[in-house]
Amino acid sequence: MAKKKTSTNKSTIVKERKKPVFSFLKTRQSKTLIATFLMLFSVFLCIAFISFFFNWQNDQSTLNYLTDRTVKSENLLGKIGASLSHFFIYKGFGIAAFLICYQLFVTGVNILFKKTFSKIIISWNWTLIAMLWFSVAFGFIEKKLALFSGIIGYELNLFLQDFTGKTGLIIILIFLAIIYFIFRFKATFNALIDKLKEQKIQREKRKKLKDENSKEIITENTDKKDKKVDDTKKEKSEFELSVENLQPTITKHSDVATNKEEISLQIEKEYQPTLKVEQTKEETVSEIKDVGIDVAIAKEEESSTENLSDKILKDFGEFDPTLELSNYRFPTFNLLKQYNESISIDPDELEANKNKIVETLKNYKIGISEIKATVGPTITLYEIVPEAGIRISKIKNLEDDIALSLAALGIRIIAPIPGKGTIGIEVPNKKSTIVSMHSAISSKRFQESQMELPIAIGKTISNETFVVDLAKMPHLLMAGATGQGKSVGLNAVLTSLLYKKHPAEVKFILVDPKKVELTLFNKIERHYLAKLPDTEEAIITDTSKVVTTLNSLCIEMDNRYDLLKAAMVRNIKEYNQKFKKRKLNPNDGHQFLPYIVLVIDEFADLIMTAGKEVETPIARLAQLARAIGIHLIVATQRPSVNVITGIIKANFPSRIAFRVTSKIDSRTILDAPGADQLIGRGDMLYSGGNDITRIQCAFVDTPEVEKITDFIGSQKAYSEAYQLPEYVDDESGTSIDVDIEDRDKLFKDAAEVIVTAQQGSASLLQRKLKLGYNRAGRLIDQLEAAGIVGGFEGSKARQVLVPDLLALEQLLENEKNQ
Ligand SMILES: Nc1ncnc2c1ncn2[C@@H]1O[C@H](COP(=O)(O)OP(=O)(O)OP(=O)(O)O)[C@@H](O)[C@H]1O
């Protein structure tokens, strides 16, 4: 007994001694340590295995010299790597040995994630079976090399083949593979189904919980002994797991049944008040929601009306006036002729002129400290810096004498040159260079200009293209003796605009009493010209028609002013921008307004024949038309004061003077002498108000204009030329048509327009029904006779006597019945 006792004592002592070692292995640190070791070892083995496949033949001889440091292995992980690989791959399972690496890594992970020991063993078993299967299979495929199957696979393969033969072995391998998959997948499949079931149950429970409105179910985690519970109990125990977090709040109860009762009671007590709270919450929410809906509707209504134009702009984009002729191609440069335009500088000529200037001035005791020459296309500018103490007025007074001494035509003295402290003497070149329209149009200055109506009129003395904006001028007066280049100048202006502006953007009204200069532009009638309704020829050659056209243009001006006023903008540019942004409603008569350029050649002729009849509308247009995009270009041969009257001069600040015969004419045009000193052939002076610039006008010949007009004319055009409003003399249109039968076809439409708009104006009818002024005026008279609009009230619109369309319908019906 005593012995027994001592032995039991010993065993308990041993157990007590072993316990700390075992418990150490169960600690978290040791588990992490082992897991890390296994994972790193798997990586180590994997690298060694891979390296082994490349170096195994070389390393074979080193395997026996594991401890010998002089012998080196080629395996990446040295001799240990080589030996382990040899053992697992060569002597073991071949390629299938890689599964060891995989399994070691998985074991490490499993230990980290606290998988049970039995599970780890099971997974090892599966891997070992797989390894065996693969090594046998590889042994069957590759018999010569034991590297793929390992010796185990190789030997097993031979052994099995001896008994079953090759075919038998294949069948066995397939059978084993199927068994393997069935067993493994079955297990995984079940687990998956179980998991899905669990999740489903939990979802249902959670749903229930929600439905019962935070019903707290607290159950005690039953001991392992209580596993034998019925199905419903099982469900509950699963549920308990999901509400694990609630467990610490449970007080210990010995009796489970009483505990359950208490819980249900607790739920009821706690549940009711929360439900009430929820209900009241819901009520308040619904109240708020009702208010919110009202507010939302009101907001939507506001925003939709405010952003209507933005919405249209967003939906349709900016209005494109060129859309109707979207395929229109601008004339190409090659339609214009190119000349040799390199300015030739003759040093002898320069030297001779310089000497002449110096000598002449010396004769008048004017010393020169410096002289500089700028060679232009037709003239050379000599800039002189006089010696100190010499008065500029002295040089200016000697202008004629100097010109005489230099014995040359076209000398002009500029004393002083504005902005510089020098005196300029312009001397014509012996050989002048033609400035082609081609070079002016193709110049960067013109091509890149952002002007509204850019005109490349020619080149300055410094050979720069001179580009001006007709819209800023705003009207241009051109004068010059016959044969000095006026017509060419007019063509240059028109060509510039044709090269830069789309047919939708600019319209010309051409007045040509000579009947020959501008006829070529007939070809572009439906593209670029504007004309009176019911007239055949767009280019006006008849003086009486000029008067009508000018008056019609005045009506157009008034209409445009009405539109600008309605749009609350100050000028055509702002108006068109607003229209493009779709802020102006076309139903209110708004439309994109093209610029209108009225060109009158031989103005003197007109004044002589029509006098005041022409002068008055021209003066009116010149005074008022700048803001609404109507610009006048008036050219005359005779720049006398009875042609270029004070009132016209005052409204034409921009003037071009070609060569004139007398100083007086020059003064009439430019308010300064100089034009009489020009050399002709396009040599001109441009006065933009203050300073005068000498320019060589760009030369555009008739064949070039013909080519351009042909090019434009051959393209798709508008259905008709731009229609100007109809103008009727005061005498006509005053008789009131009382007879119903004689009424205009559009009478009813006109009445509807007037009644709808509640505005009795002829211009409204013109815009809405696209009528000429004449017809619209007649319609207004007929409407007055019918009692739809009131009498004429001067500048105010007529009163509309019919309140709405229904009343109008009745009125017209009554008329019929009478
Ligand atoms: N810019 C220019 N460059 C070179 N030559 C020019 C230029 N302008 C005009 N000429 C020459 O002058 C000639 C007459 O020009 P143009 O027909 O323009 O004169 P005009 O002033 O219109 O004459 P008219 O008043 O008699 O019609 C042209 O045929 C041309 O040879």
Can you list the strand order of the major beta sheet? 6-5-14-13-12-7-11-10-8
Largest sheet: 9 strands, mixed
Q: Which consecutive residue ranges, at least 5 long each, have pLDDT under 50?
A: 1-21, 215-290, 731-735
The hetero molecules present are: adenosine-5'-triphosphate
Number of helical runs? 27
Query: Could you please say which CATH topology of the largest domain applies here?
Result: Rossmann fold
- Class derived from helix and strand content: alpha/beta
Q: Please give the domain count.
A: 5
Oligomeric state of the chains present here: single chain
Share in helix: 40-55%
CATH architecture verdict of the largest domain: 3-Layer(aba) Sandwich
pLDDT averaged residue by residue: 78
Shape: elongated
The span between the termini is 149 Å
User: In angstroms, what is the radius of gyration?
Assistant: 54 Å
Q: So what's the CATH class of the largest domain?
A: Alpha Beta
How would you name the CATH homologous superfamily of the largest domain?
P-loop containing nucleotide triphosphate hydrolases
InterPro entries: FtsK/SpoIIIE/SftA, FtsK_4TM, FtsK_alpha, FtsK_dom, Ftsk_gamma, P-loop_NTPase, WH-like_DNA-bd_sf, WH_DNA-bd_sf
Subcellular location: Cell membrane
Binding site for ATP: 480-487
Domain FtsK: 463-667
